[in-house]
Structures are given as C-alpha cells and as structure tokens.
Amino acid sequence: MKKIYFLLIVLFCSSYVVNGQTYLTEDFSADQMPPTSWTIDGYNNQWSTSGSDEAGGIPPEAKFTWTNGSGVSRLISPEVDLTGVSDVNISFNHFLDNYSSGPKIGVATRSGGGDWHIVWEVNTTSNIGPEERIIAVTNDDVGQSDFQFCIYLDGNFYNLDYWYIDDIELYTPYPLDAKLSAITTPWYLQGVGEVTGAVKNRGINDITSLAVSWSVDSGDTATTVFEGLSLATGGSYNFTCEDLFDFPVGDHMLDVWISGVNDGIDDDTDNNLLMKTIHVASYAEDRVPLFEEFTSSTCGPCTTFNSSFVPWSDDHAEEITLVKYQMSWPAPGDPYYTEEGGVRRVYYGVSFVPDLYGNGAQVGTNLGAVNAFFNEAVQLPGFASAVGSHTFNGTEITTTVNLAPFANYTNFRLYVVVFEYMTTGNVGNNGETEFQHVMMKMIPDAEGTTLNLSDREPYSFTQTVDLAGTNVEEWDDLGVAFIFQDYGSKEVFQSGYSLEDAVYNTDASLSYLFVDGSSVPGFDPTVYDYYVELPEGSTEIPDVLAIAADEDATVVVVPATELRDNTTTIDVFAEDHLTHARYTVTFTVATGIGDVSDDLIKIYPNPTTGLLNIRSDKTAQATVYATSGNIVGEYQILGTRHLDLSYLPNGIYFIRIKTEDQVTTKKISLTK
C-alpha cells in the first residue's frame, strides 16, 4: 500500500525558502473520490479511483471517464496557506487516453474562492503520456493564505476515453533540482545495449549541464557529461550515455544516478538514483507481431476500418498473429460477445470499438498507424520461441504449446485462443457480412496461465476443453493462437499459431562442434562434456561453433565469460522446443609438462607411468576425463592420495579437482 501524505504547512517567514518545502501531496491511496478535503465541480460521477497504473504511478489512481456531454469538470484541492511564498510548483503523473480531439485539459489556480487562473492547458488531439507534468506557478494567487488549484477538463467529454492522474504534489522548488525520472534501457536485451533515461528539472534554475553515471552489479562506474543544455522548470531531457551496457547472459542490477548538475551538485539528491533489473537474453529470434482487435457487428466505424484492415491482414497472414474479440456494444451488441472477450477488454481498458492493440499496446485504427507499428514490430527480437499443436475429438480440442525461454521471466502469462477463421452468423447492423479470426474460447480461460520461467529451461502446456456451447459455426474452420505476454507491462514477447495434428522432431543432438574453427577431438553427439587445452599464455576466449543434426533445431551458445570461468555452454532445443540437450566445453591453459602445483593442490608426477599423487589441503572431488569427455575415474581427496591409473591406455587425460571454493583442471600425460 502506498503511504498517504497530506500536509498543510504554514510558513512563518516572508523570505524565500532555500530548502524545498512540500505543502500537499495526494496519491489516492485512500481509494476514495474525491479525496478528503478535495471537491469536484461538474460531472462528479465521471470521477473515480481505479486499480490501474496508467499514469505511471502505483495503484490506485484517479480516473475521469468519458460521457455524452460537454462542459467543464474540475478536481479541486483544499485551501493551502502559502503566506510569504513566491514560487510553487504543481506536479502530477497523468495519461490521457484520447478518442477524437477530446476536451482541453489543464491546471488552474485561485485564491479567496475567486476566479480561476490558467497556469497550464493543452488541446488534446491524441494520447498524452504517461508522463510527469511539472508546472511552475508565480501568479498573484501564490503567497495567499487560501491558495487552491484544480485539475480540469473543458470541452466535449465524448471525444476522450479516460484521463488517469496520480501523485499530485504542491511544493516550493529547490533552486537547483534535477530528478532522474526514468531508466529507459529495455528490461530485456541481448548483447550490447545503450544506457538511456530521462531527467526532469524540478527546480527553479535552468539546467545547463548534467553528469549521468551508471554501474552494473556494484561494479565500475561509467560517467557521461551532457553540456549545452537549456532545461527550464518542468522540462525533460532524454539522455543516452556514451559507454555501452555489455554484460554476460543473466540478470544484472543497473544503477543510474545524476552525479552532477551545472558543474556541481543539485540541492536535492534524494531523487537522483534509480535501479533497474536488466535481463540479458541468451538467444534471440524473430518476434511475430500480434494484432488484437476489439470490434462489433453493430459498430459503424468498425466497417470502415475492417474494409482496409482485413485485406491488409490477408496480405500479411504469414507474418502476423491475429485475434478478434466481438464486443457487446454499441447496442444491441455483437451476438458472439463472450465474457472471456470482456475480460480481455478490461485488461486493456478498451472503451470503444474498433480498438486495435499490437503486441499489447494501442495502435491507431488506420492503415498508416498499422503499417508504422508493423514495420517497427518486425524488427524487435524475440527472447522466447514456441510451437503449438492441437487435435480434435468431436467437440473437444486438445492443445499443446511448448515454449523455450531465452531469459528469466516472472509473472508472464500464456494465453491460448481458439478462433474461427470466418463467421457469418453474427451479422449485425453495420453492413459487414463476414468476420475473420473471431475468438471462440480461451484456454483455460481469459486469465491465461501464469508462468515463471528460467533461461533455457523449456516449458510445456497441454489442456483439453469441450467447445460445445460456444459460437463455433464450422468445426473444420478453427485455428489456435498462442500469446506469451508480460502481464504487468502488457508487452507481448512472442505469438504464433498452433498447427493441427502437428508432429515435431525430437532430435536435440549436435552433428559438429568446433573450437576456433577446428573440430573438437573425439567429438561424439552422445557425449555432452568436453575439455579443450589452449596454448600456454592464451588469454582470449575461444569461439565455439555448434551445428545441430536437425536443421529445425535451435542452438544456443553461451560463451565463457573469462578463462577463469572457463566453460562455454551449448543448449540444443529440438524442433518440438521441449526436447533439450546441453553440451559443455571447458577450457584449460597449458602450463608446460612437469609437476603442476598451486597453493592448495599438487599433482605429480606428470607425465606419469600410472601412479599419480594428488595432495589437497581441503576435501576435494577428483574426476578423470578422457579426451572424448567420458569420465574414466572419480576419487575423493583429503591430504595425499595415490591414484593408480595404470588400467588406462596411454594417452592424454584431464583431471578436474573441485573443492568448496576452487576448481582446477589439469592435463595429464600417461606413458607406461
């Protein structure tokens, strides 16, 4: 639960307050509308609290809902005593969900209950935000003992969908105050990426220069200085740091902070630091763009949009995944509306039709917007891969989806959607006679299946449901789509279609394994662990190339990060995405023939005629490998142990000695 702050502070001095002072904050944590001591003027019923986070804060938040009417509606603050104050800022987070050139939105102030004085206003022609808006107020209402402000809408309320507002604050700004408002580096990436973010000026003075620093996992610090800025109060600056994020596969904590402002330190350092977990993926493939359309056979504008979107979808059928949900309005609503479609509508906050979502984000219902989204979406990497199959038994359908994740995923959802390619039985009054990709059933339901997945650990979903009683018209005209989605952000990371009666290959073996262009000696597809000695003095991590026996299999190579962490991992996923094999190549660096020793472990003599002495100061596990990777002996070591290897043929072997805090691998030459 968010903390509730509500401060009315009287200033007893007439001079400027150097330190910032907060007079009022409201984050709607009490979940009541209007909040205590606030009032609403006009269209009271359109204001509510919502469990959403569309404005960018923490739920709940304030929400204004469209209605068929025009006028002015104000959410009005309580009176605040600003005696002696000359400068205040009003800040809030907001997101305007526009419909069609909606009402003006703004902020106004007054004192003594008099006339309102506008301090910020915009005409709405498209969505705005989510963003933090900071407004500097210096008019005659400031300094009064009965200062008030309002957040308002003015115009035709039918032409917007919703306005979400959160984290309202009235405060005296510091002279110099830069706020790190966001880290925009993607949560998921592969390989090298840029460290990006946004800075907001919450102070009075302009910001002319910034120093932004960052580190990963509390490691080395990288700093970029941005000169020549002119950032006024409320202004925002989007930055890209010079040094690149380049870290191994896995999860990393990225810390970003403002380390300098105007060649010094700003007056409020509490808002200078943000942290973000970055998931570095082990592999990437193409991400299939998902389109979800909310529509109805009783919607006139749906006819206009579908007359162009349907041919476009047909032309791109091999490149996209498409699902349509028929809605229950305009009255009397589409006959094929279902409660599961309603759940999906609520999830996205859909309030009008047609409404289109691409990979979980709203897309304009015109071909210009559709093409712009598609052209960008096909460039996005997919950090998961999936295949599906389904079979019918009368009215029952059994669906299986196998998913190979290439990163760690928490609170994701798998949605499985049964749809009919074309329906004609739900004709309404909008002139459409055919409807494509109409959702019939979601498996197991519209809430999907919650997934917490680990990198390169495959997952399989199988379920049987009876479609009797649904709106299915032709049983041989059904398809199945699957959606892999981040439930919180709504971003869709992968989608696709299931194939009826599909049988996928289960071969997850390698046919070739190369290190720096040379085949690994003794390679055998049924042997999974290999040891390769590098020349003395080697410092570069070798390049490993692995080729699968089945061309439809997926090979993921995760290189060693350094020679001390010296194992490269090769994961092979069969075409079915469920059968999985893992190969490893462990590297050692030659130290010359002769006795090998370090502080804790001694191995001698080397070469040996069969008797090998091992001395360890700690309990250790010794494993002897042939060059093929096969284990030929395992021993427990404490103190000195004599190993008799005379039963082995002459040749080169590797011995791996593992203690609780050290792993040592050495090459042994056996010459009897």
The total number of structural domains is 5
Q: What is the number of helices?
A: 3
The computed structural class is: mainly beta
Main sheet, how many strands, which sense, barrel? 6 strands, antiparallel
Mean pLDDT: 91
CATH architecture of the largest domain: Sandwich
Low-pLDDT runs: 1-18, 593-598
Count of DSSP E strands? 47
- Predict the CATH topology of the largest domain: Immunoglobulin-like
Q: CATH homologous superfamily of the largest domain, by name?
A: Immunoglobulins
CATH uppermost class of the largest domain: Mainly Beta
Mind telling me the C-alpha Rg? 32 Å
Strand content: over 45%
Distance between the termini: 74 Å
